[in-house]
Amino acid sequence: MTGVKTTIRGLEKIPMSQCIVVANHASYLDGIILNALLPPRFAFVIKSEMSKVPIAGFLFRRVGSEFVERFEISGSMRDARRLLKVAESGESLAFFPEGTFLLEPGLNRFRAGAFAAAINSKVPIVPMVIFGSRYILPAETLMPRHGHIRIEVLNPIEPSNAAFTNSKDLAALTRQRILTILDEPDSLS
């Protein structure tokens, strides 16, 4: 309906077994893109504020999203424990580890949740890079523009590797791999 063309490369890199997908986050389109792209076995991890958005909250609940509290410590800890149980039960998860997106281009800091879940569950992290969504539906706009979205699936990272003693190391490596091909700046430098 919007005239948006989508190209996906590397879809075969997503394991058939349990895994955790992480992608950069630049637009409200990103969740829709991943929901359309990934098999139904994936639950999407979404900030709890989205559960209160009338249409979006309803749709996110319908597709089995997991809502997480980002600001209240007790709620964040509760949700982190719940997500670890979901991951340990064998369900695959999809995260936007930046937690949110901003108007200006750039890859922001990664939160540790996805990476802690991967280490505890001993499942691979599959980095994905989404190109073009920031242009098509920038922050603070309601109507998408015509454009092209390109998705690049990168090689999985096995957290069982002895090099990953904590979620911060795994997050840093994943973030660096995404930055290597993302056509946006590093917001942390």
SSE topology:
Layout: E1 4-9, E2 20-23, H1 29-37, E3 42-47, H2 54-62, E4 66-68, H3 73-88, E5 92-95, H4 113-121, E6 125-131, H5 133-136, E7 147-153, H6 167-181
Parallel strand pairs: 1-7, 2-5, 2-6, 3-4, 3-5
Antiparallel strand pairs: 6-7
Question: In the CATH hierarchy, what is the architecture at level 2?
Answer: 3-Layer(aba) Sandwich
- Under CATH, the homologous superfamily reads Glycerol-3-phosphate (1)-acyltransferase
Topology order in helix (H) and strand (E) letters: EEHEHEHEHEHEH
Radius of gyration: 16 Å
Number of helices: 6
**What structural class do helix, strand and pairing data support?**
alpha/beta
CATH secondary-structure class: Alpha Beta
Q: Could you tell me the CATH topology label.
A: Glycerol-3-phosphate (1)-acyltransferase
Strand order of the largest sheet: 1-7-6-2-5-3-4
Global geometry: globular
- Contiguous uncertain segments of 5+ residues: none
- When the domains are counted, the total is 1
> Beta-strand percentage?
15-25%
pLDDT averaged over residues: 80
Q: Give the proportion of residues in helices.
A: 25-40%
How is the main sheet built? 7 strands, mixed
Distance between termini? 38 Å
